[in-house]
Amino acid sequence: MDRPRITIFDTTLRDGEQSPGCSMNVQEKVRLAQQLNRLGVDVIEAGFPIASDGDFEAVQRISATVRRPIIAGLARACKGDVDRAWQALQGAAHPRIHVFLATSDIHLQYKLRITREQCLEQAREAVAHAKSLCADVEFSPEDATRTDAGFLCQVVEAVIAAGATTVNIPDTVGYSMPEEYGQLIRTLREKVAGIEKVTISTHCHNDLGLAVANSLAGVQEGVRQVECTINGIGERAGNASLEEIVMAMRVRRDRYPYENAIASEHLFAASQMLAEITRVPVQPNKAIIGRNAFAHEAGIHQDGMLKNPLTYEIMTPQSVGVPDSRLVLGKHSGRHALALRCEQLGHQFERRELDEVYRRFVVLADRIKKVQDGHLLELIRDVVEGNTSNGSGVSSTGKKFPPATAALPLPRAAAAAANSGDAHIAQVAGSAGQATVKIPFSDHHGEQEDYLWGV
Ligand SMILES: [Zn+2]
Asked: What is the pTM of this model?
């Protein structure tokens, strides 16, 4: 029997971009959209066209260049916004207008200053107008989780009758608990006429650290679209993290028997590209794509890993595209190895660009022997931005790549050291780069005690 398909809706370029310090220019957004396309997301929310000319242009350019996924443009529930979104989406192969309107009493009263009746009418009208332009219309009742459930059902029923094809239930302020969120989806499925004709979607924020848990609770109650962002960026504490949602469903297929189209081996590259563009680093212990996500530092863990990776590893670094750290780039590395590492870091180059990257790489490698990812990203940025380089790994802006980000994740470092015959000393990732730590692999005394703190 076919497993139900979960649509992955990425809003890194819209909600993600709204987070402090994460704004991107049009060129950067197009680059990231191309990476999202390689990753296999089903929907890219490319921006909020009426918000600024830059947003409009980004939606327009992404519509013209990224042809496989659905491209969504956000609009408030009014004619001007919907028209502007539609204008930006003109060139899209698969356009979607995403209309939103707050429905909670607190938002109606203090933000919009309208009654529930006015809200209902405005939602209905805006969706009907969007539908007259575009077959694919999504509606989001903003602050749905703090909206009176009976009124929420009324609004959802009205927008479905007006032509919405996806109904998104946002936990806008990150207030919901997983069982509560699941119950809300269940209520909608029980009470709303026509709900079976549309796709129900989640959009959860992480203010209490529950965005992913809430999204998955929704999936178990019949949600078939999940809205999320790379690295979990987004307003305040962020959105549900795409990589966590995808890998949770992949690793625990026994609990989540659903399909999605994400090519998980591109997750790390997408994460790195976003961090590089926004210069907002990923926290080291971030699940799935953090620098330490696959690093095993405790001696007993390393011992177990060497005997059988399954002792401590529930997924392989390769499955999410974390590069094999045994591959150290130096001046004897060939163009192929360099191209491969660039690709793993989210950059695919034409031949001539690669020539230039390679030329600068050789100059740099000659000076610093081991070229780390941070150096390479600096160098790539200079080539992409067309800056002249002095080959020092320091960009023309003078900003040195922070050492914490430059350090490679070292998932297999211990294994590599052991395999090379140097079983007593392994390189492990330290907080400020790398540190050399003695690990007594051959010492089996006291192993029992080690298990006590190894949990
Ligand atoms: Zn949001």
From this structure: 0.78
Q: Which of 11, 448, 425 is nearest to 241 (CA)?
A: 11
Tell me the CA–centroid distance for residue 42 and ligand 1, in Å: 18
Q: Give backbone dihedrals phi and psi of 421, rounded to 5 degrees, phi first.
A: 95, -10
**Cα–Cα distance, 267 to 273 (Å, whole number):** 10
Question: For residue 188, what are its two tokens?
Answer: 């909608």
Q: H-helix or E-strand containing 228? A: strand 225-228
What is the tens place of the pLDDT at every residue in 131-180? 999 999 999 999 999 999 999 999 999 999 999 999 999 999 999 999 99
Taking the CB of residue 437, how many other CB atoms lie within 10 A of it? 14
By the 10 Å C-beta count (0-12 exposed, 13-18 middle, 19+ buried), 175 is classed as middle
Task: Of 374, 193, 348, 354, give the one whose Cα is nearest residue 275.
Answer: 374
Q: Which domains, ranges and CATH numbers included, belong to the chain?
A: 7-278 (3.20.20.70), 299-323+408-453 (no CATH), 335-406 (no CATH)
Task: Give me 396's structure tokens.
Answer: 């023309």
Report the separation in Å between the CA atom of 381 and the middle of ligand 1, taken as the mean of its atom positions.
30
* Tokens linked to 452: 């006590």
- Gap from CA of 142 to ligand 1 centroid (Å): 9
- d(Cα 413, Cα 428) in Å, to the nearest integer? 7
